[in-house]
Amino acid sequence: MSTQPENQVGLFHITYNIAQKLAGQPLLGAPHLRLDILVDTVNKTITGVSHIFQSTSPPVNVISQITGEWSYMCTMDSCNILVIADGFDFSSILVGGHPVEHKNVKLRMSLSDDWQSGFANFSYLHAGKWHEVDAATVEIIEYSTQKNIEKLATLTSANKPKVAA
Question: Does residue 5 fall inside a structural domain?
Fold first, then answer.
């Protein structure tokens, strides 16, 4: 039997900006990741689009369809939300008339339990080589509404594991 009320929504839209920072300011010329996702609280999955860009030479422009899962990552002191996702793009190669997808992004994010901020490591494929970005700051930049993020935090915290005191 489910512990959730029958009429609670389980799908939420969130957009994050993920970038390395120094003294609270984004590193100039470093890769930035904009992550636009839907969070499914019922199935504990995420899906959406990512855009990695860098304006310095060589310029980077990597767009992906993101899919992944989220779960709780608990320590003795607290519980954070762990998001593990991969991004895929479509090549111009057709197999059986369908485009071939290949992985071009790997994302690992640790978010506060209210989904508002955190840290991430991500890697992306550009010009045939994988590039890694570590310890990037995750900031929420858009909501459908503030009410949605409050509902998401409330709904997911209801099922959060208890931390030993």
Answer: no
The beta strands (E) that lie in 23-128 are given as 25-26, 32-40, 45-54, 60-74, 79-95, 98-111, 117-126
Domain count of the fold of the chain = 1
Residue 9 is predicted with a pLDDT of: 63
Structural domain range at position 73: 15-157
Residue type, 40: D
Q: What is the pLDDT of residue 143?
A: 52
Q: Give burial (CB, 10 Å; 0-12/13-18/19+) of 46.
A: buried
Query: What's the DSSP call for residue 66?
Result: E
| Under-70 pLDDT residues of the chain | 1-9, 91-92, 142-149, 163-165
Q: If you compute the radius of gyration of the chain from its CA atoms, what whole number of angstroms results?
A: 17
DSSP run (H or E) holding 154: helix 146-157
3-class DSSP state of 55: coil
Q: Is 82 exposed, middle or buried (0-12, 13-18, 19+ CB in 10 A)?
A: middle
Between the alpha carbon of residue 37 and those of residues 29, 57, 113, the distances in Å are: 25, 28, 17
Residue 7 lies in a domain: no
- Evaluate whether residue 165 is within a structural domain: no
Instruction: Report if pTM > 0.85.
Output: no
Q: Which two tokens stand for residue 113?
A: 């339990």
